[in-house]
Design brief:
It is built from 17 helices and 31 strands. The strands form nine sheets. The chain has a six-stranded antiparallel β-barrel. α9 (248-259) runs antiparallel to α13. The longest helix has 28 residues, at 127-154. It is globular. The relative contact order is 0.08. The mean pLDDT is 89.
């Protein structure tokens, strides 16, 4: 028997189909070892940043299974992902399972040809690549613990910080300061609706945006009494080049703008497409396309759009240390323009297909047109209309969604009269910069070349290529960093957010109060704290502090139960928090206040309750944590009767939206989108 080990069960299932039973394919289900939670045991800094690894909780049976299978196998291949993380997983499997002389194989797409080709060229585990991942893991742990410890002392307990979080937070706060400092400026947008002799409408906009109403009114007055005509026409031909094939970052940004997908959602969908063999490996910073892939794409373009539209391109990587040997994210079989098991997968695959195919096509040619108009006396600023039309679609034939809306302007000549239909102004104010979306923040982080994160990424790449030493690199960074963190021990705690309103006095001593940041948000504290412990909510309600109830915690059996003030009122919890997170529930009161009267369909013991989480209201079983069944909208009490291959669905029906009525709470059930079912039924009739 021969053994091939991958990370994912889905990946194992796909690969098994291509190996004709010659290999038993098993999955490690991700990492099988990691650093322990306790930082004291995690890394031996003095010995040269040596990590201490432990078998991840719940992975003991995986290690045991692989070890037993390896003993019976004549050959063991480690086929984890083709990057630093995959190399590290392969090494951890070898070490934890005691594998003797396993070979490493890597492929960038899960296709029959790629897998069989990789198996023909096994190699040793790349220790430099593995050490680069280890350096990142160790560094993230040390930076995270040092920064988090400082924040717990100086801000509040429970916050976290890390190597990437810190520059991200800096970017967010710089933008927030811009927003707070922004002073809006009033301006007026003046638009004129006109028509030609042929009754064709031309919408014009004033080229000047007046800052005062008097100035705007003057333009309106003269414009309404004057005779309008075309004073100039400009036409300019330009080209639009296709964009490079996707990297991980650009895929996340595009999926966010096109579909509103969060980066994490995009990567989950891409992972599924990769594991099913539809796209190449989705974690890459390269825009390269391999020779074979390019030839296949040329065939697709020739067949779908015509060979005259082919233009083979190589795009320069913008990332400084992009791995040139890797490829961009692309379809493994570009002859298929649609792939995926659900709507999200189909959308993302189509986006990847469009971007890849378009990248090897000719430029689009666009004719831009500008019409300038004014009154005969020309005592007001020019008004203009901008439009354009695509005279040669080129790559846009493969990605029509990238074309956008074009305004087609009528054919006019200089001196032509225009009939004024309407002239009006709208008062507006300039707006502050927008806050970052997740995808926007990722894009901004890529621009920062002077952050310690960017420099460390370069160092990690040089460890991976064997140009830098693991221990020396970490020592060079961590020494000054640790010293800098330690130097902040003496700074004052920064939970003080300023003085409270003068009418808010301490409920104990009557003295002035200050605004502070606590675990549950802002509150008012006596300025004399800790000598006086008086406190109020931001609304002025007195906060009495934790009071013991006299009961022992039933969970840890050590702490005393205390009554506390929380975001949503008083509650009783263990006094040993955060070591013990027990919260006492008044089940009768909870059912009376938040119960729906609908039985949980999973455990058939609890009742579905209205609950509030970080993303708003949802409905969950009252038998939590024994039953963790939740749905996102209020249950109606009905059961879904949609017939699947396995029988009736039996999930709870829940309230829909304004446009979609009652729907199944199970996302995998077609009745979750009843409007699409109705459309399908109409087509089949």
């Amino acid at each position: 028997m021969k053994l091939l080990i991958v990370e994912s069960p889905a990946k194992a299932k796909t690969i098994s189909k291509y190996l004709d039973g010659k290999y038993k394919v098993v999955a490690s289900i991700g990492h099988i070892r990691d650093l322990p939670k306790s930082n004291k045991q995690a890394v031996d800094i003095e010995a040269g940043f040596i990590p201490h690894y432990e078998i991840s909780k719940g992975k003991e049976h995986v290690v045991s299974e692989i070890r037993d299978l390896a003993k019976k196998s004549e050959e063991v291949l480690l086929a984890t992902d083709p990057d630093r993380e995959g190399e590290a997983i392969a090494w951890h499997i070898k070490e934890a399972c005691g594998l003797k002389n396993p070979k490493r194989v890597a492929f960038h797409e899960i296709t029959e040809g790629a897998i069989k080709e990789a198996i023909q060229h096994p190699r040793e585990i790349d220790q430099n690549l593995r050490k680069a991942q280890e350096a990142r893991r160790v560094l993230d742990r040390l930076v995270g613990y040092d920064l988090s410890g400082l924040i717990w002392k100086k801000v509040r307990y429970g916050l976290s910080a890390g190597r990437v979080q810190s520059p991200a937070l800096r970017i967010i706060m710089e933008r927030e300061r811009e927003i707070r400092a922004f002073i809006p400026v009033t301006y007026f947008v003046i638009t004129a609706s006109t028509e030609t002799k042929k009754k064709e409408t031309v919408e014009l906009k004033c080229s000047v945006e007046p800052k005062t109403k008097d100035e705007a009114d003057k333009i309106l007055k003269e414009g309404r009494t004057g005779r309008w005509l075309v004073v100039d026409i400009g036409e300019e031909s330009g080209s639009r080049r296709p964009r490079p094939p996707f990297t991980t970052s650009t895929l996340q940004q595009s999926a966010s703008s096109r579909f509103g997908f969060a980066p994490s959602r995009t990567m989950k969908i891409a992972q599924k497409l990769y594991e099913d063999g539809h796209i190449s490996y989705m974690r890459t910073d390269s825009t390269n396309l391999g020779t074979e892939a390019t030839e296949n794409i040329k065939k697709v373009i020739s067949k779908k759009f015509g060979s005259e539209l082919i233009e083979v391109r190589q795009f320069k990587n913008k990332i400084k240390n992009a791995q040139e040997a890797h490829e961009a994210i692309r379809p493994t079989h570009p002859e298929f323009d649609s792939r995926g098991k659900n709507d999200d997968e189909v959308k993302l695959y189509r986006l990847i297909w469009q971007r890849t195919v378009a990248s090897q096509m000719k430029d689009a040619i666009v004719l831009k047109t500008k019409i300038l108009a004014n009154i005969e006396e020309k005592t007001i600023p020019n008004f203009q209309a901008n439009g354009g039309r695509t005279t040669f679609k080129g790559w846009l034939l493969a990605d029509m969604a990238a074309q956008g809306e074009e305004i087609e302007l009528p054919k006019v000549a200089i001196g032509d009269r225009l009939n004024l239909l309407n002239l009006e102004s709208e008062e507006k104010q300039t707006e502050p910069p927008h806050r970052y979306t997740e995808a926007g923040l990722i894009k901004e982080l890529e621009k920062i070349s002077d952050s310690f994160t960017a420099q460390m990424e370069e160092d990690l790449d040089e460890i991976a290529s064997g140009k830098k030493d693991y221990t020396k690199t970490l020592k060079k960074f961590y020494g000054p960093f640790h010293k800098s963190v330690k130097s902040k021990d003496k700074i004052d705690k920064i939970t003080n957010l300023g003085e409270a309103p003068s009418n808010m006095r301490c409920p104990i001593c009557g003295g002035p109060m200050i605004i502070k940041l606590g675990r549950t948000g802002k509150f008012l504290s006596c300025a004399k704290f800790p000598d006086c412990t008086g406190a109020r909510t931001m609304e002025g309600v007195e906060m009495t502090g934790p009071k013991e109830t006299g009961e022992t915690c039933p969970k840890c059996e050590k702490g005393k139960l205390v009554e506390r003030d929380g975001k949503f009122g008083k509650f009783i919890s263990c006094g040993n928090y955060p070591k013990c997170k027990y919260i006492k529930k008044d089940e009768a009161l909870e059912l009376a206040q938040h119960g729906t009267g609908i039985m949980c369909p999973v455990c058939k013991k609890g009742q579905m309750l209205e609950k509030r989480g970080r993303f708003g209201i949802f409905y969950g079983c009252s038998n939590y944590p024994d039953c963790k069944h939740i749905i996102k909208a209020k249950p109606t009490g009905k059961i879904c009767g949609y017939i699947k291959d396995s029988g009736p669905c039996q999930a709870l029906m829940m309230e829909g939206t304004k446009t979609i009525g009652e729907r199944c709470s199970d996302k995998t059930c077609p009745n979750h989108n009843p409007h699409k079912l109705a459309e399908q039924n109409d087509k089949t009739k």
